[in-house]
Write a structure and sequence with these properties.
CATH architecture of chain A: Orthogonal Bundle
CATH topology of chain A: ABC transporter involved in vitamin B12 uptake, BtuC
Strand content of chain A: under 5%
Order of helices and strands of chain A: HHHHEEHHHHHHH
Largest interface: A-B, 38 and 28 residues
Number of strands of chain A: 2
Mean pLDDT of chain A: 90
CATH class of chain A: Mainly Alpha
Mean pLDDT of chain B: 91
Strand content of chain B: 15-25%
Strand order of the largest sheet of chain A: 1-2
CATH topology of the largest domain in chain B: Rossmann fold
Shape of chain B: elongated
CATH class of the largest domain in chain B: Alpha Beta
Low-confidence stretches of chain B: 18-27
Distance between the termini of chain B: 86 Å
Largest sheet of chain A: 2 strands, antiparallel
CATH architecture of the largest domain in chain B: 3-Layer(aba) Sandwich
Number of helices of chain A: 11
Oligomer: heterodimer
Distance between the termini of chain A: 45 Å
Order of helices and strands of chain B: HEHEEHEHEHEHEHEHEHEHHEHHHEEH
Shape of chain A: globular
Number of helices of chain B: 15
Strand order of the largest sheet of chain B: 8-7-9-10-11-12-13
CATH superfamily of the largest domain in chain B: Response regulator
Helix content of chain B: 40-55%
Low-confidence stretches of chain A: none
Largest sheet of chain B: 7 strands, mixed
Number of strands of chain B: 13
């Protein structure tokens, strides 16, 4: 009985780490923008869905497999991020935050409408050949799910290297710490702005592609994802990259353990419960600064 | 002479004009607008779009043969379609538009129980006839609206037959993973459980997922730990196909039974044939080649040719609605008196053009509740396709009386 319980817990934790990895990618895209510009980029979920649809199109049209398709979709997503920054958010940069919020909502509808026109209303599943299952004493790990976790780790590592070891990354950190001082030090804030949106959208595209391979891309899925993303932001700490990583995994594992040991009806409600508890008792988040 | 000639020519031109337009007026074809309210987008579209397509196909067939002959007139059918998005508010709005703005008296489609139940709650007060297709919620016909008819049997009629079948196959501990927030799936499971327990079985778990869920690994992991000897999956085909795929990945190879009514194409978008192999679907004996006669085979061929995709199992419910309406209008001799048309539907035998194999009640297609019945069948996935294996033990006469007893 004890052994069976351990296997069940281990399986749920593995399930949670997989879905948590996707939440991490979504949350990272949200937190870099919120941390630096204070913009709640609600359209990020729709951008992720666009990434899923785009990756599906690339795999079908050019016969690519999942990861090469995703690798091509990500730079396209980065360009989309730059366009979003230039055309949607930059004009309202110095206005009250509510303007950016309204822009975000409008962008959500625009991108979802474009997805519907371009790709239709049916769900799409990105085919992948990573179907084998590794079974260790009853713990079943599908190959694709392992790759999702590894891909997330690789993207986190790439982003860390970019931000800590490159000139561009230094500029981004300078703007994040003190925008006015960064301007005085000669940092091109416009350029940093575009880079941040490019990184955010590329991560969102990756999340959408992985969701499309693990599950499916369909109208309405993006909204649920962005809500989970904001729950992770609040849990981990607004603007905190380590917080987004820890928060994503904690949320994913909480959901699966709640579904497994309390009730499946609570799986999606956990995100809202987490948001409420964190806001009540530790509003700066697990790793946020007071 | 010149004046006489010019008057003669004028007279000839006038006569030709009168004959042309006069004869045209006498022979002018009449048109009857019929409405379709169905899920054309969103999670219900896998059921609603095939229904809408099937209505279009039937209408084109009828119009090509001269339309509906009502008395001395012939009516070509024209379809006005609205998307109810499987949502009760959208469904109500769609039907209100059809009735109030478009002046439609005959409304078909209705794949999904949410919007259909909402409409059924007020349609009894309207001067229309409503023909329901795939929507399986029992209350839709249990209410006894005199102007509402349904071609698809309610979910619990199939559920009780399925429970008996699974018990006969020797299952003792069964776990359910289903859309428990949807009432007709709950009704299927309740009826299933009653008969399954009579056969000596027990349901040891009921885990839920919603129409938009795609990750059911937490629910399946919990169920796996309970070691059931059978699994029952009840839900819309899109999330259910993920249940089958993820159950296979978790090593759950016990007999898996379902109530999902999806076509092979729908499942293969998500799961591989290996992952589907051996799975059962316990449902009305819907569109499947082995159960079809020549009418059904012709429908399959014509639908596939027109829409470049085979019809989904929900499609014939709507196709048959059109022919029911055609015969009722012709028998009633009126397109305006909906009470008379509804009375004719009540008396109607199964139309010869019907694709589904209906079981008549007292030689009529619909019982006193406005409900039609098909047989229930056990289908198993073998080598890339659903294969009809056997009928499920079901009795529409007993169910019809039970449905009548529910009316307040």
């Amino acid at each position: 009985m004890g052994g069976a319980m351990i296997i069940e817990v281990a399986q749920q934790i593995f399930n949670g780490i997989v879905i948590g990895s996707v939440y991490v990618l979504i949350a990272l895209g949200l937190t870099v923008i919120f941390g630096i510009f204070g913009i709640a980029h609600f359209a990020h979920g729709s951008v992720a869905m666009f990434g899923g649809y785009l990756t599906f199109y690339l795999t079908q049209r050019f016969g690519l497999s999942l990861f090469p398709g995703m690798a091509i979709a990500m730079p396209i997503g980065a360009l989309l991020g730059i366009l979003i920054e230039r055309l949607a958010y930059r004009p309202v940069r110095d206005d009250p935050h509510i303007n950016a919020f309204i822009i975000a909502l409008g962008l959500t509808m625009l991108i979802e409408g474009a997805d519907l026109l371009l790709f239709g209303a049916d769900q799409v599943v990105i085919p992948s050949s990573y179907r084998s299952v590794i079974n260790i004493a009853g713990l079943a790990m599908v190959e694709l799910r392992i790759y999702v976790v590894l891909t997330t780790c690789a993207l986190i590592a790439a982003m860390t290297v970019l931000l800590s070891s490159t000139r561009t990354g230094k500029a981004v950190r300078a703007v994040a710490q003190n925008r006015s001082a960064a301007i005085l030090m000669g940092v091109d804030v416009e350029w940093v702005s575009m880079v941040v949106f490019a990184i955010s959208s590329a991560l969102g595209i990756a999340a959408g592609a992985l969701i499309g391979a693990l599950f499916a891309v369909a109208p309405g899925v993006g909204e649920g994802l962005v809500v989970k993303g904001f729950a992770v932001l609040i849990l981990g700490g607004l603007g905190s990259i380590p917080g987004a990583i820890v928060g994503g995994i904690v949320l994913g594992v909480s959901e699966t353990l709640a579904a497994g040991f309390i009730s499946s009806a609570y799986k999606d409600g956990i995100a809202f419960l987490v948001m409420i508890l964190v806001l009540l008792f530790r509003p700066e988040g697990l790793l946020g600064k007071r | 002479m010149k004046r006489f000639e010019s008057r003669l020519y004028l007279g000839i031109v006038a006569m030709v004009a009168v004959l042309t337009f006069g004869i045209g007026a006498i022979a002018a074809e009449k048109e009857l607008a019929i409405g379709v309210s169905d899920a054309l987008t969103g999670p219900g579209a896998t059921y609603g779009l095939p229904q809408s397509n099937a209505v279009q196909l039937a209408v084109e067939e009828i119009n090509a043969k001269g339309g509906v002959k009502v008395g001395k007139d012939s009516y070509k059918l024209r379809v006005i379609s609205y998307d109810d998005k499987a949502n009760p508010t959208e469904g109500t709005n769609a039907v209100r538009k059809l009735i109030d703005r478009d002046g439609v008296k005959y409304i078909l489609g209705f794949c999904c129980s949410g919007p259909t139940s909402a409409v059924a709650s007020f349609i009894g007060r309207e001067d229309v006839v409503m023909l329901v297709g795939n929507a399986a919620e029992r209350a839709i016909t249990a209410q006894g609206n005199p102007n509402l008819f349904r071609t698809r049997p309610p979910a619990d009629y199939t559920g009780s037959a399925a429970g008996t079948f699974v018990a006969q196959r020797g299952a003792k501990k069964l776990a359910v993973v289903g859309s428990l927030d949807v009432s007709f799936y709950r009704q299927y499971i309740e009826a299933f459980e009653r008969e399954f327990e009579k056969g000596g079985g027990k349901i040891i778990a009921k885990e839920s997922y919603s129409a938009t869920d795609r990750d059911m690994t937490p629910q399946l992991t919990k169920v796996r730990a309970l070691n059931p000897d059978a699994l029952l999956v009840t839900g819309y085909v899109e999330p259910s196909s993920f249940v089958y795929r993820q159950a296979f990945d978790l090593g759950m190879k016990m007999p898996r039974y379902g109530f999902t009514s999806g076509s092979e194409e729908m499942f293969l978008k998500v799961a591989t044939s290996e992952q589907m192999e051996g799975i059962w679907d316990l449902r009305p004996t819907e569109l499947t080649v082995e159960a079809l006669g020549p009418v059904g085979k012709a429908f399959l061929a014509n639908y596939t040719k027109k829409f470049n995709i085979p019809p989904a199992p929900s499609a014939p419910y709507a196709y048959d609605q059109v022919y029911v309406l055609k015969h009722a209008l012709e028998n009633a001799g009126t397109v305006d008196d909906t009470k008379k048309v509804a009375a004719e539907i009540r008396k109607l035998a199964v139309p010869p053009e019907a694709v589904m194999k209906y079981i008549p009640i007292d030689k009529k297609m619909f019982d006193e509740n406005g409900q039609a019945y098909t047989s229930n069948g056990a289908f198993q996935w073998k080598n890339n396709k659903w294969t009809y294996v056997s009928d499920l033990p079901s009795d529409p006469m007993i169910y019809s009386k039970f449905l009548r007893s529910l009316r307040k």
